Amino acid sequence: MVTTVNIKKYISVLPLLFLCFLVKAQGNDAVTFEMKPSKTKLGLNERIRVDFTMNKDGDNFTPPDFDGFRVLMGPSQSISSSWINGVRSFSKTYSYTLAPTGRGIFTIKQATIVIDGETYKSLPQDIEVTAAVDKPDAEKTVDDVADESLHLVAELSNPTPYLNEAVTVVYKLYVSPTIDVTNFRALDNPKYNDFWSQDMPISKYTTENTTFKGQAYRSVILKRVVLYPQKTGELEIEPLSLDVSLQVPTNRRDFFGGRIFAQASKTVSAGKRTIAVKALPTEEKPANFSGAVGDFKFSVTTSKTSLNASESLQAVVSISGKGNLKLFEIPKLNLPSSLEVYEPEFNENIRTNLSGMEGTINNSYTVVPTYKGKYPIPSISFSYFNPKTEKYHTLNSEEILINVIEGPSSGTVNTRGGAALNKQTIAATGNQFVFNKLTPNLTPKETNYFFGSNRFFLWWLLPILFIPLAILLGKKREAISSDVEGNKIKRANKLAKKYLSAAKKTLGDKDAFYIALEKALHNYLKAKLKIETSEFSKDKITTLLSEKNVDLATNEGFIGLLKNCEMARYSPFSVVQMQQDYNTASEVISQLDKQI
């Protein structure tokens, strides 16, 4: 009976224990969003730092109006995430640095944030501003100093370009001389979905002394990108975010009187930049305009103007200058039907600098005349838009006359119906009719016996001569078959070529292209660095390439390709971006071959 009562007692307690467990779980997952001022009382000549902190990532952050204060800096964003004993800790903070505009008690009102679809508000906070103090900002923290001394800026060469006009984005980090940057890493690289982009790798970071907002600073260029907008209207460039480790001076001194530095970590962002892309004018737009924007020269040349039938010449249609050389088509050459013309071979010699693409592109036609005569290569035109003059320009090539000196003639013969038929005229020679000789001049043929001759003994000696050669070939084959590592490298090289070829065939199909490109890159490294695919990681690849004395630009280019292959699974990639990645892969592999 007692046992039954105890069991009923425990059963009645179970719902209460379960409820406590739920409350604790909800408490662990509860969302917090609060405002934390660095001080609640300050002098008129001091500044205050206000942090809005949340324990879950949110969107659509809306700050208060900050009535009674002037915003000196912000919002700056910092993120902290860690795992302790299997429990994840996350914190995200928006920070502002404020200066009071007068004395009195001011209220910093509520800020709002949307987290998991729900809107959260911070509590308002009263701040008392007194008269100016003798020692302003005595309570300035390490984070305050870091916020004031570190800035990441995206500088645009032209915020209002025309469609397909080059725009250069230079990301600069400005650092105050009072702090030292020890390390940095990119948290999120911007994507340029509405642009054709060309990254310009930086092989060495160089620090320069400059000014920022009227004060002395040091600056370093971290990233350079040349963009060609593919759409009109306002296009946004996503921000570049960095996690920066730095040393900040404090008010404390060591035993020898030197200033003590504190370690700090800050997340800085360049912020979104907007480019207003202008449409090309429609007035006076040539009918043959194919999208060329820049300043160009145009010509049509031939390797020769006089030749015989069945000989060949090269006709080259060439465009050179500055502009979007990779983003338009070369005009086609129109030749007479009596000239046999093969598919043109495309050639390019383009380099990219801060002002955009510059160089030469051309189509080279192989032309073979069939008949004797004179054949004109008619003039063709090329039109482009020059953003400097804001006008369209049309260039015309000169007419070229091809003179076929020797060969069959093409003639016309009139039929009864009056129609003309093309016929080939056969040229007569002087030996068309000759007589057979009636008296032959015959001589007896000498008889040679095989047995006992030199050839007889040579055939007997040949098998004996082949024995040493067979022994050498056998040893060579054994050496090749025993070289397991060499055979693996050869197979990996063949696979790399195979997959790079497969990637070229799948241009336009994003998933298939980047799968094939990633396999090609992996197999190439497998051959060169003699490591298995299972060992691959970006950090290990970077270390191994550095040990092989591969320069920084090539190393970063290879890692960038691997990142693009990963990003392609989740992000839209244009055909132009795929072609760019394919060309980059060819260049990177070529550079690695030269350096490893």
Automatic annotation (TrEMBL):
<keyword id="KW-1133">Transmembrane helix</keyword>
<dbReference type="InterPro" id="IPR025738">
    <property type="entry name" value="BatD"/>
</dbReference>
<dbReference type="Pfam" id="PF13584">
    <property type="entry name" value="BatD"/>
</dbReference>
<keyword id="KW-0472">Membrane</keyword>
<feature type="transmembrane region" description="Helical">
    <location>
        <begin position="456"/>
        <end position="474"/>
    </location>
</feature>
<keyword id="KW-0812">Transmembrane</keyword>
<keyword id="KW-0732">Signal</keyword>
<protein>
    <submittedName>
        <fullName>Oxygen tolerance</fullName>
    </submittedName>
</protein>
<feature type="signal peptide">
    <location>
        <begin position="1"/>
        <end position="25"/>
    </location>
</feature>
